[in-house]
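Now read these lines:
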Amino acid sequence: MNGWKEWPLMIGCALLVSAVPSPAAVRSAADLTRGIVYEQRLTQQVSPGLNFVDDRGRPVKLGTYFRGRPVVLAMGYYRCPMLCGIGINAAARTLEEFPPQSSARDFEFVFVSVDPAENYLAAAEKKSEYLRKLGWEPAAERSHFLTGSEAEAARLADQIGFRYRYDPEAKQYIHPSGLVVLSPQGRISSYLLGIDYPAAEFERALGNARRGQPGIAGRIISILCFSQSPAPGTVAYWVQIALRCGAVLTLGGLVLLVRFKHRSPDRTYSGA
């Protein structure tokens, strides 16, 4: 083998290896998502005095919605690029399975944003989208999309066991997906975890809440709202683009090198 012909290939492989971030440079999804779960706190009383802003820009206390109906509570944020919208739409699809006069439709739906940068306009837009998908007029007065301060959202999250954190590099909130079903007095009755809520399970959870009875702990699953891809415009985003471009160029160079090598005449002569 002519070693001098192989060194460009070896250098190319080394460049490709160097284009891959070391384990220390790669953010571990396990580290980012550690502890991001719903800690199920059945029978926990949710504070009615928590202060938020409704989708019309009016100050409101959470207890305003503890008014004789079960409460289906969700947390997340309105600009979420991942599962928040999917979860809200899944709840709407579940409701479509019940007749208009079914008791399974008789509840207050409350969504609370954990992002203090979001305002009532974002809440109103999300509510409008939800109501369009649901297509049921009474839902307009029973659906409430709230925003508020970081401190109040954190207090509510702590009370319902909603563990989340902000990832400044991805510019996203990492959080679990699911619904918390409260009694009409605001006591936690059950959890519906994930992004799919079977009609029978949903109806049973509402029935237990309406009677003030705690359900059993929900199935232990952890579906998280989180994308590890860096947000456009961040340093990590441009580093990722540069690494990908470098890898493509290096691979292209290797392909050309191999083709050139195979086309070159063999200049090795045997001795007489």
In short: Confidence is low (pLDDT under 50) at residues 9-19, 22-26, 234-241, 267-272. The two ends are 20 Å apart (CA to CA). The chain has two domains: 3-27+231-263, 32-225.
